[in-house]
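pasting for ref
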Amino acid sequence: MYSIVTSDDFCRALTSDKYANWTREGAEALYDYLEEWYGPIDHLNNHGIEFDVVGIRCEFHEYDSAIEALKEYGTETDMKAIGSLSPEVAEVVALRWLGEQTNIIEVDNGHVIVHRF
């Protein structure tokens, strides 16, 4: 059985997931990213993607900033390297480093979504 999942359905499901910390803006950004990657989600030309909230939680994570994501994925050396930089420059450097490792999505609210690696 298939069901069309709208942007609103998608965002509501992610933001109500009590095991994740999705913001509405983050959920919308991820929906747009997936739609861009797979094509229009509600018109998939007889293809389908499974809407799995747990799978999404395991594959993507929204962080308050790129620096917060770097704390999880980077090394102690990476953190020391940005420690002496201004917060704005450190954020740019962290975004660049993350982008070299995996796919990232910058969210309008300043958060960043990392495709876990």
